[in-house]
Write a structure and sequence with these properties.
Structural class of chain B: alpha/beta
Largest sheet of chain A: 8 strands, mixed
Strand order of the largest sheet of chain B: 1-3-2-4-6-5-10-11-9-7-8
Order of helices and strands of chain A: EHEEEEEEEEHEEHEEEEHHHHHHHHHHHH
Distance between the termini of chain B: 5 Å
Radius of gyration of chain B: 21 Å
Mean pLDDT of chain B: 96
Structural class of chain A: alpha+beta
Number of helices of chain A: 15
CATH class of the domain at 4-254 and 458-474 in chain B: Alpha Beta
Helix content of chain B: 25-40%
Shape of chain B: globular
CATH topology of the domain at 4-254 and 458-474 in chain B: Amidase signature (AS) enzymes
Order of helices and strands of chain B: HHEHEHEHEHEEHEHEHHHHEHHEEH
Low-confidence stretches of chain A: none
Number of domains of chain A: 3
Radius of gyration of chain A: 30 Å
Oligomer: heterodimer
Strand content of chain B: 5-15%
Strand order of the largest sheet of chain A: 5-6-9-1-10-11-12-13
Number of strands of chain B: 11
């Protein structure tokens, strides 16, 4: 890195859990809604109310812990994090302090073909805060602020990494891998644009070879992967510059200004909150039996890394293709279902990621919203494999499958698209093409072998694409020699 | 007509209607509560509407429950839909909850008639009811003395026969001590026995709602209605409901009573009255022995640290942003929040918030809060050992008789020391009942009976057998109008 420095980065990722109801009450977690309509006495923190834990949140915490190779203890508890801010309804956040739902995990990332293991310090459950809506652009330029408590009590999982990341690329890869795992285990939508996954970056720099960490800053407000990368890069450069100029790094919290592309100091360590954590007296501790933890473990789907390995080793896919398939759990599941009937993995990938993917895009659909069931896709590939249809016809069928939601077989029958593999049926067309294209015939006979391609194309055209191209090729050669 | 069964019989036989009864009680309450200061607000409209519903039930020939048509007072820290609930604080002036506490739901469903919200020390912090932002409460037995606190209004209103029963809350003695000072029966159930949902929290791990009445039986009836599992309170015990009423057999032969010597310090007049009561128990067939709770000396400090720590967090939500009072003179939100708290919290509340904030601060947490938690564990062990030998423990409710208004209010330490007999019980989470056991200088003396967790049936029966063999609860203060 620059001037003999290396960066040390740890990330705190806040993930909004996709439970139907909030963490301590039965209000909906749905995004949006008119301000202060998804609220009740409990999430509004009215005097006298008490929280009741949503068991789904605990289950999601356990799922995450197990998917991140972490220890899930039998005993965990909630604590109160005390600070005053109007987006809180109780002026404390119910969170977890010293006994979180899971600890000591790891996640493998791959940058430039090299696999690196990133430690996960812990993940803890907590409630989200509300949203301040300022009349002006910033809080200081506003004459008034309103507060929307719809988001208060939406369950969050804060996943803290060890300071094992060394570059913005690694940080991006870490968040990407994390997102993939979390969507695989179905605990979050991980939509950065809706704020369902947010990251804070702890960054410090030190001379390469140094054993001590440098003084770190924490940068907040990183709402996209791009912002995350840019902010980390900016912080690394800024810190190196400060040190090179003989200065010292202030331990502080900074905020990312996306417009200016810089980080700005928010508050120094001296102004840091003393959160006065103490055990939440309104919630009993969370006691999880080994049986329960094992039950959750058994319910986990195959995770992306293991799937990728299987696709490469068992199905013979390339690294590139395997990455394409595992990028999305729904796609990977779809692939697996098709793969049960079709042994040629490469063929599946070609059709899935080629014409099918393109046509979906044109129809404004995705793998998730597509009406084409795996059964239909299997049927399509079987028609190709038993030579009932050509690849060319398959291309014609795919958009109809999507638009009209019909099985490929019924489309083939309706439109008479069955491939002609009967030589007697093709003879007439071939003789006609030969007599209509004397120039090409002459060229071929003169030794220009590639002109046969033109003649095959003409036969295909005459057959409206239904002729078996391999058979046409064979028959043409016979007639021309 | 101030006992539940009596009222029930008269309503069922149509000797009197619920509306007539309610009207009498409301009229008399208006006369005496202005002298005593027992209410922050009264609820005439709600009371008459609910009484009409009971009368309609009786007219239809429907069987009415024991509590139907019975006048009651609710401590002003228990949420009541549409009825101002101030916690005795200016900061909640005008605050009308949009939901009922679980106990209120249960009492309403049983037909209880709410006459008003009882006065209390602000946020239940106090032992004399001199900390209310809505005026002091006077002891009905001697209007120059305190009724005890923090449920001073709830105790005084029962003693003055303004209602048949009331609800109080007890964090460090706030039901039992005023019950003792006012000569009524007051029960603090086991932590988790009664739902706290809707009780505006002072110290969540100590708070418990309980009944106050003029007889053990009435207390038991109310206890049975309000207790039991509530899914809205994760700390409520998920166990089968008890019938303490059915357990009132009066038979206590062979009962082993322990007398913890650490609790027998203070005014000799109080102690002599308790000893006389213990002799009565022996006469009734119980075995009375002295015992020891050796770590009692740590209880007060542990209590004031834990209660204040929890309070500092529980009371953080009162900031003027969402409900209650607001300091409108400030322009900035942070200034508004601190201005509101500065202006509308009383002295005692601010003091405890500061103590609690300090005890939880980084660098002090281990020395104070954590140590207090350890003391709590040690105290639990004291009681476990005592209950291995004894069925119940009996103590005075306070080291003194009800003291004079203004006597201790300037001296926090003396005031806090007065809680020596009660706070440990909340730290340990066990049930405790206070019953009147005699008079000294014309003032009532209260006796506290303690039992293992969830031993309410036994405690009520032990209290009942004493009451049935003495006549202390047949006396009433002069100020009382109702029979």
């Amino acid at each position: 890195m620059n001037k003999g420095y290396e960066a040390v980065i740890g990330l705190e990722v806040h993930v909004e859990l996709k439970t139907k109801t909030k963490i301590f009450c039965s209000c909906t977690t749905e995004f949006g809604g008119s301000p202060n309509t998804h609220v009740c006495p409990v999430c509004l923190g009215l005097p006298g109310v008490l929280p009741v834990i949503n068991e789904k949140v605990v289950e999601f915490g356990v799922r995450t812990g197990l998917a991140l190779n972490a220890k899930v203890p039998n005993y965990s508890k909630f604590d109160r994090k005390n600070y005053y801010y109007p987006d809180l309804t109780k002026n404390f956040q119910t969170s977890q302090f010293d006994l979180p739902i899971c600890e000591h995990g790891f996640l493998d990332i791959e940058v430039d073909g090299i696999v690196k293991r990133i430690g996960i310090t812990r993940a803890h459950m907590e409630e989200d805060a509300g949203k301040l809506v300022h009349s002006g652009k910033t809080i200081s330029s506003s004459y008034s602020s309103n507060v929307d408590y719809n988001r208060v009590g939406v369950p969050l999982l804060e996943i803290v990494s060890d300071p094992d990341l060394r570059s913005s690329e690694e940080a991006k890869e870490y968040v990407d891998s994390l997102r993939r795992i979390l969507t695989y285990i179905d605990i979050s939508d991980c939509k950065m644009e809706e704020g369902s996954i947010r990251a804070d970056a702890n960054v410090s720099v030190r001379k390469i070879g140094a054993s001590e960490f440098g003084i770190r800053t924490e940068t907040k407000n990183l709402n996209s992967l791009k912002a995350l990368q840019k902010a980390i890069e900016y912080e690394i450069e800024r810190q190196i510059e400060v040190l090179e100029d003989g200065g010292v790094i202030e331990q502080e919290t900074r905020t990312w200004d996306d417009e200016q592309g810089i980080t700005l100091a928010m508050r120094s360590k001296a102004d840091a909150h003393d959160y006065r954590y103490f055990p939440e007296p309104d919630l009993p501790p969370i006691i999880l039996s080994d049986e329960y933890i094992e039950e959750v473990r058994a319910s986990l789907p195959e995770l992306p890394e293991s799937r990728k390995k299987r696709l490469i080793e068992a199905d013979g896919l390339s690294d590139y293709d395997a990455n394409l398939i595992i990028a999305d759990r729904h796609l990977a599941d779809y692939y697996d279902q098709v793969r049960k009937e079709i042994s040629d993995g490469k063929l599946i990938v070609n059709y899935l990621m080629g014409d099918y993917y393109r046509e979906l895009g044109e129809a404004g659909l995705s793998f998730v919203t597509s009406p084409v069931k795996p059964e239909a896709f299997i049927e399509l590939l079987q028609l190709i494999l038993d030579k009932t249809i050509s690849g060319k016809i398959a291309k014609e069928i795919i958009p109809i499958m999507i638009k009209e939601v019909k099985s490929p077989k019924s489309i083939v029958e309706e439109k008479g698209l069955v491939q002609i593999s009967d030589s007697s049926e093709l003879e007439g067309m071939i003789l006609e093409v030969i007599s209509n294209n004397p120039k090409a015939v002459e060229d071929y006979r003169a030794g220009k072998g590639n002109s046969i391609g033109f003649l095959v194309g003409q036969v295909m055209k005459a057959s409206k694409g239904k002729a078996n191209p391999a058979l046409v090729n064979e028959l043409l050669k016979k007639h021309l020699c | 007509m101030s006992k539940i069964r009596e009222i029930n019989t008269k309503l069922n036989s149509k000797e009197i209607s619920a509306v007539e009864l309610t009207t009498i009680y409301l009229d008399n309450l208006e006369k005496t509560s202005s002298i005593i200061g027992s209410y922050i607000s009264t609820t005439k409209k709600e009371a008459l509407a609910k009484a009409k519903m009971v009368d309609a039930q009786i007219a239809k020939g429907e069987e009415i429950g024991l509590l139907a048509g019975v006048p009651m007072g609710i401590k002003d820290n228990i949420s009541t839909t549409g009825i101002e609930t101030t916690c005795g604080s200016k900061i909640l002036a005008g605050y009308k909850p949009i939901y009922n506490a679980t106990v209120v739901e249960r009492l309403y469903a049983a037909g209880g008639i709410i006459l008003g919200k009882c006065n209390m020390d602000e946020f239940a912090m106090g032992s004399s009811n001199e900390n209310s932002a809505y005026g002091i409460v006077k002891n009905p037995w001697d209007l120059t003395r305190v009724p005890g606190g923090s449920s001073g209004g709830s105790a005084a209103t029962v003693a003055a026969r303004e209602v048949v029963f009331s609800l109080g809350s007890d964090t460090g003695g706030s039901i039992r001590q005023p019950a003792g000072f006012c000569g009524v029966v007051g029960m603090k159930p086991t932590y988790g026995r009664v739902s706290r949902y809707g009780l505006i929290a002072y110290a969540s791990s100590l708070d418990q709602i309980g009944p106050m009445a003029n007889s053990v039986e009435d207390c038991a009836i109310v206890h049975d209605i309000i207790s039991g599992y509530d899914r809205l309170d994760s700390t409520s015990a998920n166990m089968k409901a008890t019938s303490t009423l059915a357990a009132l057999t009066k038979d206590i032969k062979g009962l082993k009573i322990g007398i913890p010597k650490e609790y027998f310090q203070g005014d000799e007049k109080v102690l002599a009255t308790i000893r006389k009561a213990l002799a009565k128990y022996e006469e009734l067939g119980a075995i009375v022995e002295e015992t020891s709770l050796p770590n009692t000396e740590y209880a007060l400090a542990a209590y004031y640290i834990i209660a204040s720590a929890e309070a500092s967090s529980n009371l953080a939500r009162f900031d003027g942003v969402r409900y209650g009072a607001r300091d409108g003179s400030k322009k900035d939100v942070t200034e508004m929040m601190s201005g509101t708290r500065d202006k509308f919290f009383g002295q005692e509340v601010k003091k405890r918030i500061m103590i609690g904030t300090y005890a939880l601060s980084s660098g002090y947490y281990d020395a104070y809060y954590l140590k207090a938690l350890k003391a709590r564990t040690i105290l639990k062990r004291d009681f476990d050992q005592a209950f291995a030998k004894y069925d119940v423990l009996i103590t005075p409710i306070a080291p003194t008789l009800p003291f004079k208004l203004g006597e201790n209010i300037k001296d926090s330490i003396t005031m806090y020391l007065g809680d020596i007999c009660t706070v440990t019980i909340n730290l340990v989470g066990i049930p405790g009942i206070t019953i009147p056991c005699g008079f000294a200088d014309g003032l009532p003396v209260g006796m506290q009976i303690l039992g293992k967790p969830f031993s309410e049936e036994l405690l009520f029966n032990v209290a009942h057998s004493f009451e049935q063999n003495t006549n202390y609860n047949s006396f009433k203060p002069e100020v009382a109008i109702n029979e």
